[in-house]
Structures are given as C-alpha cells and as structure tokens.
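Model: You mentioned two targets. I'll fold them one after the other.
Researcher: Yes, keep them separate.
Model: Target one:
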Amino acid sequence: MQRIPALSCQIQHLLSSLTNASSPVSLQRGRCLLQKRNLAVPNGRMRFSTSPLLFKKKDKTKNISSSSPDPRPPKAGLVSDDPYDLAQLHDGIAAAVSRLKDDLSKLRVGGRLNTDAIESLRVQLSKGGKETVKLGELAQVVPKGGRMVTLLASEEDYIKPITSAVVSSDLSLTPQPDAHNSLQLNIPIPPPTKESRDQTVSVAKAAMEKATAAVRDSRGSVHRRLQDMQKKKIARPDDVRKAQEQMEKVTEKGQREVRDLFEAAKKAMERA
C-alpha cells in the first residue's frame, strides 16, 4: 500500500524531466528510463499505460429501434382506389344468398320438415332465466320417415324445456313422450294444409325481402364510394361511369339469384 504513492512520485518526476528536456537525446533517454521502470501496480493489477480508455455507453435503444421493424400494425379496412374493384359488392351478395339458402332450408318444403329447423330452436333451461341453449346441443334429432321425428335427450331434466320450446315455435308441432323411453320425444309431422302452405310461403317471402335489402345495401356502399372518388378526383369520370355500369349488372344478377331461390322454394311448397 505504501509503494503506490512512491511510484506515483517517480512517474511525475520522470514526466517532469521529459517535459524540461531540451534535446532529442534527453527525451530518448527519458523514454528508456520509463520502459525500464517497473510501473506495474502490486497484486498483479493492470499497468497505467495499458489501462483502457473510458468510452461513452452505447445507446442500446437506438440500435434496437433501427434494427427492429415498425411495431405499428398496418392499417386495416382500407378502401381500394380502383373504381373497378367490386369485391365489396360481390361479398355482400354472396353473404345475402347464403343466408337466404339457410333460411329456406329450415322451412317445410314438399310436406317434409328439415331437422335443422328443430335443432336450431332455442331452449330455456331455467324458468325465468334469460340464457338459452340450442336444442341440438341437448338432444339428438332423428328423422323417422317423412312424417315422424324423434328427439333423444341427453338428460331427463331436458324433456320439459325441450317440449316447451317446440310447442311455442312457429313450426306447428306437438311433441309426445315415448311410452318406453323417458328420454325420447316423438314428433308427428302433420300433412301440410293450405293455411300452413300460405304461412310457409309468407315466411319464405320475408326471408327473400331481407336478402334483397342486403344486396341493395351492398350496392349503395359501392355507389357512395364511386361518387366520393369522382368528387375527390381520385378516378376519372369515364372510369367511374363504366364502374357504375358494371356495378348495376352485378347487382341485377344478385337480385335475380335471390328471386330464383324464392320462386323455386315457393313452387315446392305449393306442390306439397
């Protein structure tokens, strides 16, 4: 511990002699003396002459921000600048037609009842409760010929709420308990009458009108987009006009498909 101050004094003395040296020979002699001196600090510590310089800490955040991608997600739902892009209209028509097919499949066509109409009924398990469950999750619906449907409940406690759901629906069905199986309900399918046919046609027409309105709404959205593009001079007037003509043709085709689906279902109902 006492050698360090002495060593420091020797270094200062040598540096002072070097500074005051007036000739190159004296300067060279002083350098040689420095090299001969053992300037190592006791206990094997690093020499003063080889100590690393202190550098400024690197800014890690700068490297990370420059190498990593932009964390902000790209904007979604951007409107296309192409006036001929009618994808929004095509998607709207496809969704409306698909929904109409699903609604018509649940109706009694040709005197038969699609089991999907029963499976999709909502069942209220607890009295006074608001939570409902699809009937298909509580019981298995098995068609028995063209005039009978059997319900096989997973638990006996489901029989009463299932019966209430079927009776209160607009299917005009009356479940009957099976004499040999307490988990089974037998639902006879009555033959269609003129009144039941008219009611079914009325429901189908309402579904058709709903699909027609959906197609019309999709057309309106595209029309407003084209008008906005012309107003903001994003597209040329000729391109907007041609795009509108294509839009009208696609809309007319979609409306015709909706009407054809309804007419086909209506004919099948009237033949029953």
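Model: Target two:
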Amino acid sequence: MALVPYEETTEFGLQKFHKPLATFSFANHTIQIRQDWRHLGVAAVVWDAAIVLSTYLEMGAVELRGRSAVELGAGTGLVGIVAALLGGGI
C-alpha cells in the first residue's frame, strides 16, 4: 500500500493516474501502459517526468544506438521502453 498525499475526491490533482490505461506515441510506436494506482501505488503510474524524459530522448538529445541503457526507479518503465525503441540496449 502506498502513502498517497491527496484525497481522491478532490477536483484537481492526479486524476489521470486513476485511468487504467495510459497511451503514448514515441519512436513511431504506440505504447499502452496499464496503470493500477489503487492496488500498486506510485510505481504503477506513468509520471510526467517519464513523459518529459522520453520526449527528450526522442528529440535525439542523447545518442542511444549501440549504447547500453538502464532505467532505475521510474515507475512503469516508459523511459526504458522508449530508450529501447530508439536503439538503446541492455
């Protein structure tokens, strides 16, 4: 169980984390990630920082082809998926 510092009934905040499916388009692929905030907590949602970093990688800011990439502690793993699609290996 995760400690959640907000009330689910409020009109603002983190409602998007309660959607069971998050869909993104990166590296010419559609990526769908299932989210389960209520049962798995903060590790089971796609955080805005992951979207921003994935966009940064897609812009070519870092050359990933032929390089190893490791993603640590990033929720659902969106950044690692995008890095792999852009040529980063394990």
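Researcher: Noted. Anything on target two?
Model: The longest helix spans residues 48-58.
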